[in-house]
Amino acid sequence: MFAVRWVLSLVFVIQMYLAMAIMAVVFAPWALVSREGAFAACHTFCRWIIFTARILCGLRSEVRGTPPTDEVVIAAKHQSFFDILLIFHAVPRGKFIMKRELVYAPFLGQYALRIGCVPVDRGKRGAAISKMKADVAKGTTDPGQLIIYPQGTRVAPGEARPYKVGTGLLYQQLEQPCVPVATNVGVFWPKRGIYRKPGLAVVDFLPRIEPGLAVPDFMRRLEDDIETASDALLAEAGFQKAPR
Q1: Which of 24, 41, 57, 75 lies at a C-alpha separation of 20 to 30 Å from 17?
Q2: CA 166 to CA 149: how far, in whole Å?
Q3: How confident is the model over 185-239, as pLDDT tens digits?
Q4: 174 domain-assigned
């Protein structure tokens, strides 16, 4: 049975990248003349991957809480590519703080820039924060939900990584509510590898943190909210995590 599921996972991964290329080409004329076309392409791709993950891999998905539709910062737990798709598909105009290397990824990089994503250099922390704040400030005229991963990278279930202060600085600068997001998707769709486990992958939009907190207080609350809710989702999925 494992061999069959592994083969189906391989088929799923292959068709995922094929679908990305095909949709990128099909939607390109619309995306070139309108940002709406780029969003339509990305949302269509998300729907397709969510559907095929369920059909080929037995990987169902669920969005809990209330996805925001107004101007907010979304600070999310990041475990694999699947949480990117689920979060983006749940909001109308998502745009990510992303690592600069992704700009050069075929199709993905071009569409990311078109929908308003903000590339930053993770290798130079101080410069990256300053550049990120400047780019976000310049991009505030483009409506949308700004999505950032406070830990800066994918973090596998059970792995501990610190929360970076850049999220707090954006929260302070933009003076917008922050919506934390918890997840357990890494149990089923790993950080690396081909195999996708059947089960229920969840992203949970938690109660928003309103503007006005000092950065240290905001960071403590953000980490506690996300980690507590993510631990609960991991336990729901049958993953036993060591106590924090």
Answers
A1: 75
A2: 10
A3: 999 999 889 999 999 999 999 999 999 999 999 999 999 999 999 999 999 999 9
A4: yes
* pLDDT tens, position by position, 144-186: 899 999 998 999 998 999 999 989 998 998 889 999 999 999 9
What residue numbers bound the domain in which 153 lies?
Answer: 60-236
Element (H, E) at 98: strand 94-99
The structure tokens listed for 95 are 């745009």
**How many independent structural domains does the chain possess?**
1
pLDDT band, very low/low/confident/very high, at 28 (cuts 50, 70, 90):
very high
| Selection from 49, 50, 56 nearest residue 17 by Cα | 49
Average pLDDT, the chain: 91
The counts of H helices and E strands in the chain are 7, 7
Task: Give the sheet arrangement for strand 118-120, strand by strand.
Answer: 59-65, 199-205, 178-183, 73-76, 145-148, 94-99, 118-120
CA atoms within 13 A on the CB side of 141: 1
CATH code for position 173: 3.40.1130.10
Domain membership flag for residue 37: no
Q: Is 113 within the bounds of a domain?
A: yes
Task: Determine the Cα–Cα distance for residues 18 and 33; give it in Å rounded to an integer.
Answer: 24
Is 1 inside a domain boundary? no
